[in-house]
Structure formats: structure tokens, C-alpha cells
Amino acid sequence: MKVVFPIIATGEQITRMCEMASLIWHEAYRDMLPRKQIQYMLALFLKPSIIEEQIAREGYTYCFINTGGVDAGFFGVCPRLEGNSLFLSKIYLLREYRGCGLFVQAMDEIVRLARLQGLPAVRLHVNKNNTRAIKAYIRSGFHITGSDVFDIGKGYVMDDHILEYVIPG
């Protein structure tokens, strides 16, 4: 199936993306994080007003991962948020679209975006307990460069690995 990556720009698209994120997060993180933390983090990071602000003022680009005319997931990137690299802030697929090559195609698009901007690497943070995602990133050529714990308020932290993919010259 053909995969395209339409840019998310309208309020309706942003709302749809945030609703998709809520479904994905509650399913993907239910065994890693308490439900209240998932809800808190969704409100902190994936609320339409937050996404609109990131797009308008911080240089973020969000794209759907669309296959066969269906939005199967999305990703968000921001250039130079972490040094001389493209920061992969978010990449999520609905459960029924995992394991069919969409992640690889989305990563190819993300690398293409980094190259277009003349950036030599893609960086991201991933929950240390998200072994499925960590394995997928490593299969895609990322390597762990560090770890950090980020206080996100209300007694919650993000305990993450920091991963990097160096774009071949």
C-alpha cells in the first residue's frame, strides 16, 4: 500500500491526532505507567493547544502516517531542539497498523526531512521500559547515547533513554 505523510496543520487535524494519541497511549503505556500519569502526560504534551503552540512558535512539524487513505498514526519532529539534529518528539501507530512496515517507512521520511534541513542526526527520548519501541529504534539504526530522568510535575518523572541515528554521509 502507498504510504503518504500529510502535514497536520488545521485545528480539526490536530484534534484528530490528539484523539488518536489518547487511544494509543492508553493501550501502549497501560502496563508501564499508572493511568493517572498517562492522563496527565496526554494533557501536558498532546493537547490541541499545546500542539498548535509547538507548530506556530517552536518550529514543530507533525505528519499523519497515512496508508490506503487511512491515518494509521503520526509523528512530530523539530529541528535543532537537541543540538545539531532533528528531534523526533513523537511517533505512534495504531495497534492494528504495527508490524506491517509503516514504522520503517515513517523513519525513512523522518531521515529524509533531516537531510533536507542539512542535519546530520535524528535524536529522540524513549521510556526505558518501552522495550518494544527501543528494539524497533535499534533495528532502524539508532543507538542509546545516554539516559535521563525528567521531572514533569505533580510527582511524575519521565525515565528515558536518549537515542540517536547518525545519517550516513
Map the helices and strands:
Blueprint: E1 3-4, H1 11-28, H2 35-45, H3 48-57, E2 61-67, E3 70-79, E4 86-93, H4 102-116, E5 121-127, H5 131-139, E6 143-153, E7 156-166
Parallel strand pairs: 4-5
Antiparallel strand pairs: 1-2, 2-3, 3-4, 5-7, 6-7
Helix pairs in contact: 1-2
Describe the structure.
- With 169 residues, the chain is α+β, with helices and mostly antiparallel strands.
- The protein has a single domain, classed as 3-Layer(aba) Sandwich (Aminopeptidase).
- It has five helices and seven strands; from the N terminus they run βαααβββαβαββ.
- The chain starts with a strand and ends with a strand.
> What percent of residues are in strands?
25-35%
Radius of gyration from the alpha-carbon trace, in angstroms = 15 Å
Q: How many distinct beta strands?
A: 7
Mean pLDDT: 95
The rough form would be described as: globular
User: Biggest β-sheet, characterized?
Assistant: 7 strands, mixed
CATH class annotation: Alpha Beta
Per the CATH scheme, the topology name is: Aminopeptidase
List the helices and strands in order: EHHHEEEHEHEE
How far do the termini sit from each other? Answer: 29 Å
Write down the domain tally.
1
Our count of helices gives 5
SSE-based structural type: alpha+beta
- CATH homologous superfamily annotation: Gcn5-related N-acetyltransferase (GNAT)
| Percent helix | 25-40%
**Residue windows where pLDDT falls under 50 for at least 5 positions:** none
Per CATH, the architecture is 3-Layer(aba) Sandwich
